[in-house]
Design goal:
Blueprint: H1 16-23, H2 30-38, E1 44-47, H3 55-60, E2 65-69, H4 72-84, E3 90-93, E4 105-110, H5 121-133, E5 135-146, H6 150-156, E6 160-163, E7 172-182, E8 187-196, E9 199-209, H7 213-223, E10 227-232, E11 245-251
C-alpha cells in the first residue's frame, strides 16, 4: 500500500461519531486538567474542544469554560451531548491559528495533543500568539504533547496498525496507517479507516507535527511568553525520558 503526500488533506475534523468511538473514554488527562482549571476563579478557554470529551467534564464540575473548534460537526455533537446532560455550553466555531473572541481568559488549555495539528512553524507561532493575546495578565496556557521518539517512528510507522477503540462495536475495527514520516519537516502523515465487517465506513487523513522540547521553548520565546515549566506526565513528574508525555504550563 502506498499513500502519496498529495493524497493527504489538511486537518478539517474527525467524524464525531467515529471519533467518540475511538477516543471518547480517554480520561488519563482528565484529573490533571480538572484540578488545574477548578483552581481558576475566572474564565477558561479550551482550544480544539472537539465533541466535548474534556470540555463537558469541566463544565459539569463548574468551570466557567468556553470552547472553540474548527469543525462545526464536532461542535454540534458537543451541543447535543450537553443538552442531554442539561448543560449550557459556550462554544463557537473558530480556527486556533486565527481567532478573535473579543474576550480574555485566565487560562487557555489545549488538551489531547491538539496543538500538533499545526504542521508549519508559521501555524504554530500564530496559534501561540493568538492564545497569548487572549490571556489576562498573569494568565497561563496549558497543553500536552508527545515526546518524539525515533525508535517509535522506525518501528510503528510506515505500516498498518489495528487500534483498539474506547467503545468497541461488534464487527468494527479501526485501521491506522502511518503513511510516512517527513523528517526534514517533522511531519507524520496518517490515515484512519473505520471498517464495519471489513468494509470502510469512514476515513480521515491528516498531517501531525512532532516537536522537540528545546524547539518548543524557542517557539514560546518567539510568541512572547515570559516563562514556562514542562513536566514528564500529568502528575508533575520531572521530564527525564522520551517515553514521557510533555505537559507544558506556560505563563503569559
Amino acid at each position: 500500500m502506498n499513500m502519496k503526500n498529495e493524497d493527504v488533506v489538511q486537518f478539517q475534523g474527525y467524524d464525531p461519531v467515529y471519533y467518540d468511538l475511538t477516543y471518547g473514554k480517554n480520561s488519563k488527562d482528565l484529573p490533571f486538567y480538572t484540578n488545574i482549571t477548578t483552581d481558576i476563579k475566572g474564565k477558561v478557554l479550551e482550544v480544539a474542544c472537539g465533541s466535548g470529551r474534556m470540555y463537558l467534564e469541566l463544565l459539569k464540575v463548574g468551570v466557567d469554560i468556553h470552547g472553540i473548534d474548527l469543525s462545526e460537526e464536532m461542535l454540534d455533537a458537543l451541543k447535543k451531548k450537553a443538552e442531554e446532560k442539561n448543560l449550557d455550553p459556550k462554544v463557537s466555531q473558530a480556527d486556533m491559528r486565527n481567532f478573535n473572541l473579543d474576550d480574555t481568559f485566565e487560562m487557555i488549555i489545549i488538551p489531547g495533543r491538539s496543538f500538533i495539528h499545526n504542521v508549519t512553524t508559521d501555524d504554530q507561532l500564530s496559534t501561540l500568539k493568538c492564545c497569548r493575546n487572549h490571556l489576562t495578565d498573569g494568565g497561563r496556557l496549558v497543553m500536552n504533547l508527545f515526546y518524539p521518539s525515533r525508535e517509535v517512528m522506525a518501528t510503528k510507522y510506515n505500516r498498518e496498525n489495528i487500534i483498539p477503540m474506547d467503545k468497541p462495536v461488534e464487527g468494527m475495527e479501526l485501521v491506522n496507517w502511518s503513511g510516512f514520516v517527513n523528517e526534514p519537516d517533522q511531519v507524520i502523515v496518517t490515515r484512519f479507516t473505520w471498517k464495519q465487517d471489513g468494509k470502510a465506513v469512514s476515513e480521515f487523513k491528516s498531517e501531525l507535527a512532532y516537536i522537540y522540547k528545546r524547539e518548543f521553548e524557542l517557539l514560546l520565546r518567539l510568541a512572547g511568553f515570559s516563562s514556562w515549566q514542562v513536566y514528564g506526565g500529568f502528575e508533575y513528574q520531572p521530564l527525564e525520558s522520551i517515553n514521557q508525555e510533555m505537559v507544558w504550563i506556560i505563563n503569559k
